[in-house]
From TrEMBL:
<keyword id="KW-0812">Transmembrane</keyword>
<keyword id="KW-0106">Calcium</keyword>
<protein>
    <submittedName>
        <fullName>Uncharacterized protein</fullName>
    </submittedName>
</protein>
<keyword id="KW-1133">Transmembrane helix</keyword>
<feature type="transmembrane region" description="Helical">
    <location>
        <begin position="339"/>
        <end position="358"/>
    </location>
</feature>
<dbReference type="GO" id="GO:0016020">
    <property type="term" value="C:membrane"/>
</dbReference>
<dbReference type="InterPro" id="IPR013714">
    <property type="entry name" value="Golgi_TVP15"/>
</dbReference>
<keyword id="KW-0472">Membrane</keyword>
<dbReference type="InterPro" id="IPR011992">
    <property type="entry name" value="EF-hand-dom_pair"/>
</dbReference>
<feature type="transmembrane region" description="Helical">
    <location>
        <begin position="33"/>
        <end position="53"/>
    </location>
</feature>
<feature type="transmembrane region" description="Helical">
    <location>
        <begin position="267"/>
        <end position="289"/>
    </location>
</feature>
<dbReference type="InterPro" id="IPR018247">
    <property type="entry name" value="EF_Hand_1_Ca_BS"/>
</dbReference>
<feature type="transmembrane region" description="Helical">
    <location>
        <begin position="60"/>
        <end position="79"/>
    </location>
</feature>
<feature type="transmembrane region" description="Helical">
    <location>
        <begin position="295"/>
        <end position="319"/>
    </location>
</feature>
<feature type="transmembrane region" description="Helical">
    <location>
        <begin position="137"/>
        <end position="157"/>
    </location>
</feature>
<feature type="compositionally biased region" description="Low complexity">
    <location>
        <begin position="579"/>
        <end position="594"/>
    </location>
</feature>
<feature type="region of interest" description="Disordered">
    <location>
        <begin position="574"/>
        <end position="594"/>
    </location>
</feature>
Amino acid sequence: RIVPDGRAVARSLLVSEAGQLKDWIAHNPDERAVASFIAGWVLLITSFVAICMKLAHWQILHVMINLYVLALAALTCALETKSSVVRDHLCLPLERQLAFLRIGAGRGLTYCATGLLALDTVHRGIGGSLRDDPAQMLGGVLMVTIGLFNLALGVSVRRKLKSLKSKMPQWTEVHARFAEASARAEQPIGLDAHVFTAFCEGYAVRFNRLEMQGVFLEIDESRDGVISLGDLSAWYHGHIGGHLKPFGRGRRGAIRSARAWLFRRTALVDVGVYGACACAALVPMLVAATVVSAAAYWSFMQVVINLYLLAFCVGMLILEVRCTETRRLAIYLLRYFSLLQYQEARGVLYFMVALALLSQPERWLWPAAYLLQLIGLLSVLIGYRSRRCVEALGRKLRTRDAVAGAFAAVAADGRRPLRHFGLRLLCQGHGVHLNFLFEQEALLNQLDADRDGTVAEDEFMLWIGPTEPAMLDAFGAYPLEESTAALERSGTHRSGGTDGVAGGGAAAATAAAQSGAGDGGGDNGVYGGCGGGAVEGGGACAGAGKGACDAYRRDEEAHLPGGKVSQVSVEIAAPEEPSTTIDIDTSGTSKCLP
């Protein structure tokens, strides 16, 4: 029996992370990240000092606003640091939900808003002058400067990346060229900045040192310092909000106008209706406040903050109004702000905007701020209930077949979209009780991805089934279970593979794939161990589950000189049954087949 020493483990982890951080600050070539980290750290310290000062003078409103500034400054430090623990447990999950943080322009706007909010709290502080708190003023100015730098860099990189994608040919040719560059540079896992710069120059698009840092910020999804084949494929095929793209194409459901949405039978129990009405009322009020700030106070900072608030109200109005006219634009916004699909996240944003409104000099904005606080509180409570219902359904329905069967059991003709009654019947059939009407409405709105007032089977599968956004692979393909089922249904014939051999049972293949290790032998490398099924072909994974397949995909070009698979032979070994051999002709393709 092995009993680990918790204190020793924590101490060694802390020493390792501190060493990584020290090495990153000393030797890291990413000047953009270093400058952003320093700005966030300075603002973090000054905001903490400002909170203590405001508590001494009992200014509760400014304390709450400074807490938001403190949280945003801490988020800046977390996003820009290279700590593996922070990256794996905070940054990567957050970037999956808020994809705009993977773009330089998105980070720049966030940093500018943080700096302006800090400057506004100083200006509305004890003496009403920016000179009363020079430390926080310095932190705010530094944050705004770094934000403008990230914004300019992100716009330039975005323009060049669009030009690069337009000059790229079909994916098979890009794949072969990437494999050739990887083999020539002896970088099997992925290309570093130097090699990837030369790779882009082959398409007549040149990035300088700073721009390449912005390129890695957008394309390097795993934040490991190299661009792998999976990262490049995800960017080539549309890596931001790919799971929502199908719901924004064409017309899927019935046409619903804004008037029909507003005057429907369940509108009074929909908290989104109240949020939309409040944002619609705030739009002209904020326009008037912007004009007053520019004409009467000559405050450029106040004008910019009012413009931020105005953009928030317009965006929330688009997201809350579920009609045909705003459907495509709302889905496009949700691709970059996936976290706002949850009612809880929108409630927290309402709270933050309400605090910003309460700090404004125009007192006629304060009633709207109190209303937004109430709407934010209701949104958090109702969103928490609907999220718990989704999680409970996910625990009850663990497979795609179970989800499809549960949907077909309550849907008319087994496939028609569900409304309130059908959704409540489905939940009650699996022990999830919706006691109140507002819970049904909130759950329907959360599951309704195409915003037509009904829940179709693919929308239900998106949230409840194993095809959640985080489980879609880089190619936008179906998960491993469905791909394996497609292999089993495709029939059998044998023709043999030529590019390589990977053998071994499921356990050996899993260990080899997860560790990224394999013993190569000549031109036809042999990976794995002995026994079990075998996979013949260069780009295939031995049947080892989704984790092993994903891990092996990152290294699929590591041992293949040509990088192209002509034929794949798969042996599927079933328990207590003879093994079945399936040969699949994949000429011209290079995807990793489970």
